[in-house]
Write a structure and sequence with these properties.
alpha/beta; 5-stranded parallel sheet; 17 helices
């Protein structure tokens, strides 16, 4: 059974009735499994309704007069009484357009715990997210990050705690552990973090079985793409299939002419936004300035497009290439894989990645905002990890808002003035610190 970081957060909200819980994310990231597991562990009555399979439940959200009427009719669908203190789980909530209408009344009644889950594939949850403040807590699940992957394969929490300590102190990791983790990271490039793929490897250690899982997930995504393309005339399948080849280009930016020779970004902008909102792709936008916040200089039509899981990216590669990746062979272009993995790990850690390019200074792979500071990040897959012209130029400008930079590679921890060289498996540790003291009081004397 795979341990997930979201478990503690979900337990906290499932144990109380003050707020409904919405767990969203792309298909196959483990939402439904984790909700079932936590709910069943409470020992409380648990009722699950899938709104795709049980369309009649959708009509209840639309037609119920009040909370009591809703529960009364829901019991008819369940085929038995629903005791107070039950956990009511509604999967695929996106199918119920009017779910928000009843939410306030359901929560105010304070008799049941409500949990909602929605796949972001082709859906609009924006109206659902506009629930009254205090009535809905939302959390997004992602594929397993590298720490979760390590634990799933039998790693020890003490080992990862050592990694965190080395990251914080900028001290080298024990050589033996470092080499093992680099090997494991290359395996992560192949398997990725989709729970079913990871579980398949844990049970069989057969990469062929993992490939079957990846193929099934990609086909599932494309079936959803096809359904929505008929309705909205999007180019979802074409764009999705282009991601691996676009990432193998030198600059890794999405080249619109590869999609359509007569391409006009405005015409297909909704396709890219759809893939982003669906959680199946991660657009990393360019920024024109290295000052925070980056939203002010974000360029919406200039971006790199990554897959939501590095294992799904490498599923497009041949078996021979995958074996070369596992053996760290030099004749492989690791750039796309490394950058895709970093984009996924940053995103799942809550750190929104951008990239920066200057016509004179060059391009930096990623640039993030952490603790209010701008941090450029270079990703290097070869031995020449200390060669980074664009990063050097930016750091030499000695701008006060860039106090440090990071280079991620296969090497161990090193520090050279303001540049920290970190192992690639530490990418997910680049995130905002928790506020140590968030209690602020203003002296109102004299007002």
């Amino acid at each position: 059974m795979l341990a997930r970081k979201h478990e503690g957060e979900l337990k906290e909200y499932i144990s109380q009735k003050k707020q409904a819980l919405l767990v969203d994310g792309a298909r196959q990231v483990g939402k439904t499994f984790l909700i079932r597991k936590i709910s069943e562990e409470t020992g409380r009555p648990f009722f699950e309704f899938n709104l795709i399979e049980q369309q009649e439940v959708c009509t209840l959200f639309d037609g119920a007069k009040d909370a009591s009427d809703f529960i009364q009719k829901l019991q008819l669908i369940a085929g038995k009484a629903i005791p107070e203190s039950s956990i009511l789980f509604f999967d695929e909530i996106q199918e119920a357009d009017d779910a928000l209408t009843l939410m306030k009344f359901l929560i105010d009644e304070n008799k049941y715990t409500y949990v909602f889950s929605g796949s972001l594939l082709g859906i609009e949850l924006n109206s659902f997210r506009s629930a009254p403040v205090g009535y809905l807590h939302e959390t997004t699940m992602y594929p397993l990050d590298f720490e979760e992957f390590l634990m799933a394969l039998g790693g020890h929490a003490d080992t990862w705690n050592q990694i965190i300590e080395c990251f914080e102190k900028k001290e080298p990791v024990d050589g033996f552990i470092h080499d093992k983790l680099i090997d494991l990271f290359h395996l992560y490039l192949i398997i990725g973090g989709m729970p079913q793929a990871v579980q398949s490897y844990v049970e069989t250690h057969d990469l062929s079985d993992v490939s079957v899982v990846h193929k099934d997930i990609v086909n599932l995504y494309k079936r959803d793409f096809t359904k929505y393309e008929k309705e909205k005339r999007l180019k979802l399948v074409t764009i999705y299939d282009l991601i691996p080849s676009e990432l193998n280009m030198q600059n890794k930016r999405f080249v619109f002419s590869d999609l359509d020779k007569q391409f006009k970004f405005d015409r297909y902008e909704n396709s890219f936004l759809w893939l982003k909102d669906a959680g199946v792709a991660i657009p990393v936008y360019g920024v024109a300035e290295t000052t925070v916040p980056f939203l002010q200089s974000k360029t919406s039509n200039l971006f790199k497009l990554f897959m939501n899981d590095v294992g799904l990216l490498t599923s497009y590669y041949s078996d021979e290439v995958k074996l070369k990746i596992l053996n760290h062979e030099k004749d492989i272009n690791y750039g796309a894989m490394f950058e895709n993995a970093v984009a996924v790990l940053l995103e799942s850690a809550g750190t929104t990645p951008y990239y920066y390019k200057d016509s004179k200074l060059g391009e930096v792979d990623f640039i993030v905002e952490c603790d209010g500071a701008c941090i450029p990040i270079e990703v290097k897959s070869g031995k020449k990890y200390r060669s980074h012209r664009a990063l050097n130029h930016i750091m030499q400008r000695k701008e006060p808002y860039i106090s440090k930079a990071i280079v991620l590679s296969n090497s161990n921890v090193e520090v050279d003035e303001r540049i920290a060289y970190l192992p690639i498996y530490m990418a997910g540790l680049i995130r905002n610190s928790k506020l140590k003291n968030s209690h602020i009081q203003i002296d109102m004397t004299g007002l």
